[in-house]
Amino acid sequence: MRGRFVAFQLAFAGAFALAGCAPHGQASDALDLGVDLATAIAPGPGPVDGGPLIDDDGDGLDDRDELAWAQAYLPYISTSPTDGCTIGGLAVRVSPHPADAKMVHIIYDYLYNDDCGLGGHHGDDEVFAITADLTQAPPLGIIAIKAISHQNTPCERDSICGRCGGLTPCQTLVKGGVPWPAVWPSRAKHGSYVNRGASCTLLGTCLDNCDDAPTPTEPPIVNVGEPGHPLVHDLTDQGFITSGNGWTHMELFHFDPWKTGASFGGAGVVAADFVDPAFDTPACRP
Q: pTM to 2 decimals?
């Protein structure tokens, strides 16, 4: 683990110890740790351990930090325990937030081997995005989450939560003794939702069902970079979509996440997901 991340981890662990949270897996209505972590500075742009800045995607952020942030601020992914097609991973774009230089906007594109619900198909892409405040350790630094399920279909449902004024507080599940803002992929269909009880209801979501998972899904994550400055051109050569990781459909192998107009199997266009303003999330300092 790189040195700049160590102090962040210690502050992060201290927040866990101070939280005094509900039993593991129990949902709560809002995130409130009661801990001021304003001085728990996350790793920031710049040289790592005295070494040179690595910024191959040209956004001013160290590419290694981007991946670390995407992992650290990842919401609790509550995959249904009865979902039968969970092979997948997260392709992410991490960018400076245009409203606040100390925050980042992270788009998580969850790519699956299969959609195995009604009308299933090979390949699936379902997206959620967050604003992360790098001056606050996670989970407190998760400022807002937006999810869009089954985008651009008659079954599309948009949901958003967060700590900015006017937003519904994010519902949480307990991770490591701490209430953690959660995202629910619907069973078998994988449409993403926040605040399960209000947004993922059977009759309101084209029969989508969401379930609380006792532990979060923590899938593989790959940082794809920025438009015009990709970090990845082939998700198989990169080691993400491989038979060793459980992927089985050859039409998904050697996929370029930045190829314009390229559908991910029978699903959507991944390159469009990463530049879609529908996934913009607000920045604020609660």
A: 0.85
